[in-house]
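Re-run with default settings, no changes from the original entry. Doing this only to confirm the output is reproducible before filing.
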Amino acid sequence: MEELRMDCAAFSAKVEELKAQIAGVIVGQQQSVDLILTALLANGHVLIEGVPGVAKTLMAKLTAKLIDADYSRIQFTPDLMPSDVLGTSVFNLKTNEFEFQKGPIFSEIVLIDEINRAPAKTQAALFEVMEERQITIDGTTRPMGELYMVIATQNPVEQEGTYRLPEAQLDRFLLKITIDYPSTEEEFTILKRHHTNIHLTGLKDVRPVLTKDLILQFKQLINQVIVDDSLLRYISNIIIATRNNSAIYLGASPRASVALLNASKAYALLQGRDFVIPDDVKYLAVSALQHRLVLSPETEMEGKTAATIVRQLLDNIEVPK
C-alpha cells in the first residue's frame, strides 16, 4: 500500500499544478474543478448548470485543454439532428460503397454546450454512448476509446427554445455541478484583472498538465482504494432515505449509489489518500444525487430544490465514526 500512497502523492502534485493553471484564467470555482476531475477519474460524465456569464463553457474548455487528449465541441441547437452528433454514412462514388463519417461525439473529451437546446430525438442519440461508450449505427457497433468523458452545460433559467432533459439521460451523468455567482471578493478580483489587464491568461497560453496515459494509469487505482463497510452502509442509508421521503416523488436508483461510491473513491485519490472518509461522501452527495431525484409537486411549490432536500437528509443520517 505504500506504493499506492506514493502514486497518490505524485498525482496530487499534478492536480495542484492543473488547479493553479485554471486559477490563472478563472477566478474561484475551486469546487467545480474538484468535481470535474473527480468525474474524469471515476470514468463519469458531468453536467454543469449555471446562469449565463458564470464561465460554464470556459471552465469545460479549459479543463479539456489542460488534459492532453482529443477534444471536440458540439453546440446544441433546436434544429440539430442525431446524425449531426453521431455521424452518418456517405456514398463514395470512387469505391461505390457507403463510408461512415464520424461525428464530433467521436473524441475523448466532448463538450456539449447548451445541451438542453436540442430536441428529444437528438437527446436520445446520446443514451448509448454515455452509458456504454459505444455507438451502434446501421448495425455496426463502434466503441469509444479508454478515455471518454462528456462535459455538458445548460442554463437553468431560460426556457425559450429549450427542452427538459429526460430522467434517463440525467441519470447518465455521474455529477451535476451548479455554478453560482462569484462572491464579492471574487467579483472585485475579476474586475481588477480586466481593468488592469494584468494576470489575464488566455486559453491559447494554457499548456496540458495531465496526459491521457497518466489519467488511465490512475483510473486503475480506483479499485485499490479502501472503503470500510461502515461507509458502504452510510452510502446505502443515504440512498434509501431518498426513497422514503415524502418530499421526493422519485428516489435515487442503485446506479446512484454506485456513482456516489465511485466518485468518493476518485475524490479520495485526488486528495492523495488511498482510503475514503465520511467527509468525501458528504462532499459529493449533493452533486451525485440532486439531478437524479424528482421532487413531489408540493415540494416544488414550496420553492425547495433537490440539493436542499439532500442536505437535509445528510443532516439526519448518522455519520460513521
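The first strand starts at residue 46 and ends at 49. The chain has 14 helices and 13 strands.
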